[in-house]
Amino acid sequence: MSLREYILLAKCPDRRGIVTAVAGSLAALDCNIEESAQYSDPETGQFFMRLRFSSEAELNDIMEYFSPLARRFDMWWRMYPKARKSRLMILVSRQDHCLADLLYRWRTGFLPVEITRVVSNHDTCRKMVEYEGLPFDVLPVTKDTKARQEEQLRALIEQDKPDFIILARYMQILSDAFANDYFGRIINIHHSFLPGFKGARPYHQAYARGVKIIGATAHFVTPELDEGPIIEQDVERVTHAMSVRDLIVAGHDIERRVLARAVKYCIEHRVIVNGGRTVVFQ
Known about the structure:
A hairpin with a 2-residue loop joins strand 12 and strand 13. The radius of gyration is 21 Å and the shape is globular. Helix content is about 35%, strand content about 30%. It has two domains: about 80 residues, ACT domain (Alpha-Beta Plaits, 2-Layer Sandwich), CATH 3.30.70; about 200 residues, Formyl transferase, N-terminal domain (Rossmann fold). The protein is an alpha/beta fold. The chain has a seven-stranded mixed sheet, sandwiched between helices. The protein has a four-stranded antiparallel sheet with strand order 2-3-1-4, covered by helices on one side.
């Protein structure tokens, strides 16, 4: 039989012997641990772990053998075949810079995922998406039709069963129920280094205040607007000589990079939510 690679992601109350017990359980199935990362949070008392290991055993057999240990340590855990590609649904409005970057990384193989479809509340990005041979759905939304539009979006999610829903500058506020139902699966890119300038025309606000750095933040979506656990951030220095357009160009570039890195961390199963924060194994 050929070796298969798996990833174990786990968290549990911190106590002695976790690493030894996990390693011993995998060794009993003749698994070989090839990469290991752990973190103990002194504030929450939680222990976090990511392991990459290889084995000739089937995933179901490994999971069945591992389950009693997980119960003993009161462990939240997931086990994934490394070769399995995560499924993404991308939501976008009119601005296409993050979408274009994700599509490029997907097409060239730098982002090994399955994109199930792109959904938008506008028709702006249709040609870009259909050129890549991907389904493109327009779900217009107004204040009066927002609930109905979310029902349509839920139907597409139920049909496609994506692992993650990527808000690639999707300029709509999701309902509390939607954010709660898909918590940990919706990744948003925010146009500032949070906390920062909120609301409309953020780069104009930044220009008016004469900021010296601009940034972007990728985070999981929660009912609290732009307050979800942060996955990735980046900044870039700017000067007084830069125009609003210069700030927008620089900001869009940061947004693309930050969102791509956040998606990569998630599809490689490197992210665990830790209360209002995240643990990201890099």
